[in-house]
Amino acid sequence: MSSSEKGWLTLTSATPGVQITVLDSGLQPVISRNDWYREPLAAGVYMVEGRIGSASTRRLITVRPDSEERQDLSVQFATAAPVHKPGAPYEDRGRLAYELSGQLSQVGGPDAGVVLILRNLGGQQPAPLQTGLLELLDGEFNKVPELTSDWIYDERGDAAGCLGRLKPGPYILRTSMRGSPEPEWVDQTIWLSPGWQTIVFVPNTSFGPDSRGLSVHMTDLGSMWHPDDIEAAATEAALAGLRDGTDSIDRFTTEMLLYGKFRNPILGVLGLHTLMMGPSPDPELVQTVVRNLEHLIGDHPDVMALAAALPERDLNGIEVSWPPMLERSYRACLLPANRAHPGVLLADSPAQRIAPLIRIPGPWLRWTAAMDIMRATDRWLHEEVDIADDFEYLTSPEYNAGVPDRPFAPGPARGRLASGAEAAAETVGRAVLEIASFKHYESPREAVRIIGVTELARRTGFPEQLVATSIRRLGLD
């Protein structure tokens, strides 16, 4: 083909992290990349697409001989944080978060802080802000009294926020959506690091706060969060990719996240997970970023999880007692590390106990709220309880007739199996029964002996210590 039959196609995007795809007239892919695009193409009609997560923009274009076709493939996508996305009309939706972040920097108190924002997302039908369905609990699962008692609303009534200076460490964001006759409360970790403020954005819906789509940003305790920072938009693009389970942002955006960690450490955590989902991540870069994150927010459970995933890392010094914030930190980092070196997940800790209560994956690690996850589980693990009756109960017709779709969800037929450890025993017991029946083993105890704890842990997705405890308490050891 002569050069006169070719033209140039240049595709760019003002939105960070856009995946660009070009299809020919037969809808066959010409190229797909997480980057801007400039290539000579045969003259003709093409379909071009820019995508972030499930949001996309696409159009038909014509490449003419000896000419250049330029297109901007900016993508508008809903984000929990009110960041300004290049190419979108500017709306001052981030003012409330900006102002509360500034107020927090002026408030005295402990060496960490949090700003909670509940907001209606742009482009969606506004709904009443149900602030009563959102709580912040401390590491003992008690409501945090240090938060401002009154929610502050923005001028439009589309967002409400509160703030507080708190001690560093683990906190729990508890939310509920009232879309069912018996609404469940859902928990997830919010970790506060010394010297930093954490800004948590929760989307509001007609059913209440939807923690599945939340966003978390960090900034220095003495600074203010800026919705116009390009890194803030890159954070939202990375979260969209993690929701879809794809490394859907380009290397430049990933590097922006990694290098932006010095001003906003959560960027480094998101950037590393995105990098590790892609092909052949640079091991030296990963190790360098992990070391820097350890220096910035070293006891953060997501940082400890990333450290545990390093191939050359000595796991003897790593003990994680609290669930991380991101689902990938738990499933892709901590569980494999714990299988290789039992004890990475501290025995009987919240990080271990939430395993059977985990909700639908990602990107955040969310679990069905168990009011008694600490106290009742302690009783079940350490007191003498007749668990043989519970195992018999698992096989009973009345139990099996009342099993809902989610086997770990508390329901009318399982009031006796409500805490995290008891839910684990339920799942392990049912797995053993299923295996024993399928393999025609003489008894469930024989099934456990032949299969072993490690394989049961792999099949259930639980830490080995939790499986071993369940087997012992079910009388199958």
Topology:
Layout: E1 6-12, E2 19-23, E3 29-33, E4 37-42, E5 44-52, E6 55-63, E7 68-72, H1 95-106, E8 112-120, E9 134-137, E10 152-153, E11 159-166, E12 169-176, E13 185-192, E14 196-205, E15 208-209, E16 215-220, H2 230-244, H3 251-259, H4 265-277, H5 283-297, H6 301-308, H7 327-340, H8 350-353, E17 366-368, H9 375-382, H10 387-394, H11 397-401, H12 420-439, H13 444-451, H14 453-460, H15 464-473
Helix pairs in contact: 2-3, 2-4, 3-4, 4-5, 5-6, 6-7, 12-13, 12-15, 14-15
Structural summary, described in words:
The protein is of the alpha+beta class and 477 residues long. It has helices spanning 95-106, 230-244, 251-259, 265-277, 283-297, 301-308, 327-340, 350-353, 375-382, 387-394, 397-401, 420-439, 444-451, 453-460, 464-473; strands spanning 6-12, 19-23, 29-33, 37-42, 44-52, 55-63, 68-72, 112-120, 134-137, 152-153, 159-166, 169-176, 185-192, 196-205, 208-209, 215-220, 366-368. Strands 8, 10, 11, 14, 15 and 16 form a six-stranded mixed sheet that branches. It has a four-stranded antiparallel sheet with strand order 3-2-5-6. Strands 9-12-13-17 form a four-stranded antiparallel sheet, with no helix packed on it. Strand 5 (44-52) and strand 6 form a beta hairpin. The termini are far apart. Mean pLDDT is 78; it is low at 375-390 and 397-418.
